[in-house]
UniProtKB/TrEMBL annotation:
GO terms for molecular function: 3'-5' exonuclease activity; nucleic acid binding. Signal peptide: none annotated. Residues 1-20 are annotated as: Disordered. This is 3'-5' exonuclease domain-containing protein.
Amino acid sequence: MAEEPSTKRHHGEMSDKSCDLDDVHIPGEKRMYTRTLEGVELHGKETLEIVCTSEPDKADEMITKLRRKAGGSHRKIVGLGLCMEEFCLVYHIATATKWTKRLNEMLKHEKLFTFVGFSIERDKEKMKISGLPMINPNKYVDIQRFWRVPYTGKEYDSLTDVAASIIHPFYKGMKKNIDTQEDHKLWMISPLPDKLIEYAGKDAYATYKSWNMIDNITNGREMAKVREVDHYNDRPFRPF
């Protein structure tokens, strides 16, 4: 049974600035703002800090924070909702006035970052139509092509299916407060309503966490195969 989200709410702070620049050709209300949600509850006692912004300078600042969290190692960063452990940046492109420099660099990075999503061909097409920088294709992973939830009989699983199976049943109800018809219209307004910021942050976290666990399991299995070939299991166990 899926765990019901707690009634405990997050704390939010907002800054709001007007701007006449229009360097990103995406339809929507151009308005610079930043909204921070703290203590967004996940499964168990896990919480998430989400920064939603359309300000390029603020996005650059948050991307620098994400890169520090990566610590120079090969870590998993997810989509345009960028997540690292308990911190998430949602860059509200539809209302942004220009593209952030650091995000552009991150999307094209050859080694440090891996971007992950679901049905990414659709996302690639949207980015192309919008004239946005493309993610390095060698570092862009579609979870639907690498993982199936066992025994569901589905051709493709949704993010909620995968996250509920791998992380926690809590994620099965991740979209229950979202009206797919009416709320879809709100993604173009500025600022985003808190419930959509929270949803976008949870979506990014669930993708990040799911792939991180899938990748660890897959790598662990491959290492076990290599050791088996090397007759590793036939050797005496020496704990010291």
